Amino acid sequence: MEMAYLRIYALNNLKERVESLIFLSLLLGVLYFVSVFLSEKISPRPALLGIIFGAGLIFRVTLLPLYPSLSDDPYRYRWEGKVQQAGFNPYQVHPSDPAVAFLRDETYPAVVGPDFPTFYGPLLEGLYWLSAMASDHVIFLKLPFVLFDLGVVLLLFRLLPMLGVSPARAIIYAWSPLTMVEFAASGHNDSLPVFAFVLALFWFEKGQQKRSLAALAASALSKLYAGFLLPVFLARTSWRLVWVPALVGAALFAPYATAWQAFPQALGGYMRSFRNNDGLFYFIRQLSETNLAAWRIYLAIVAAAMVYCLVRKVPPARASLLILGTVLLFGPNISSWYLTWMLPLLAIYPNPALLLWTVTVFLYYHVLIPYQTLGLWQEETVYKLLEYVPVYVLLLGSFLASRRRLLPNQIGA
Asked: 333: which strand partners?
């Protein structure tokens, strides 16, 4: 695996060598699955956990020096840090705003969503500001997210035994090629909200309810996904503790004053404007008259998953996998790094189909091939079929197999 990561590092500009990146990532996926299988056969002694963490650290350090060429998102992070440093509110201005034109430099053409104010939560905005205060270099922005990424591994070492699971299962997150490419190589920001989310699970299992809800709120106030989980956590603690996430939200938005009210509108506009690598949402859209109608159906499906978990009193960790799995499988905009949210949960409840998806999702980067040569963002059906069909087949097969196991018990009863 380290040899493959060294080869990825040698590619230098991953966007220009995306065919090689896809091949190496799929190869890493095979080695990753073998590693996960072997880890199940070995006693989880401290030496094994040291190997899991140490190798994961080496993999990340190998890719950390790479300039984030695969994605343009870090340029947006950098811009939002600079705009705050200049005294502007990122919820009130956008990169193409003439008022902040003086902040533009050679990286400006790569800044994502130039016509939208920020669609990131206040916790991330605060981190962008701190990073801009420390250094203006794009690569420096990657370091905090790699540290949060490693923090997730350490949290899993503690959380998994509390759930009756071998701590060696942390290898599912620690050695995932997806975390290496998306956090160490590309510097995506999801590692912070994922860390806060896993921390919420850890504190929930320790019986520290207020801390758990505060951590979950911090995750949701970085990226929205954890917000779908808040009702489940409140139902398993106490609805009277709703003041905890409310207080956290007020504290985090306080530095941005009343401008935070523009955040939901900007986020909603951004989300509705983009369809990218959609799976089941593609069929929802084909059956809907308008994009808005498709979105309503999508949100109704997610709401149904939430209600199911509430009615059946599903434990928070399993409910999180069910709800986040629904959000992603039916979602309209599925970038590869979004799947990192499932990896900690798959360490608790391994699902072959979803684990496979965390590798086949690298095929999503095929869109960069015509984009580099023709300037067209164009998805090819064959790549999407290769990404999704094996996942859906495995999901259906797992469901049917579970039904067959349940049937004899039901007949006997």
From this structure: 276
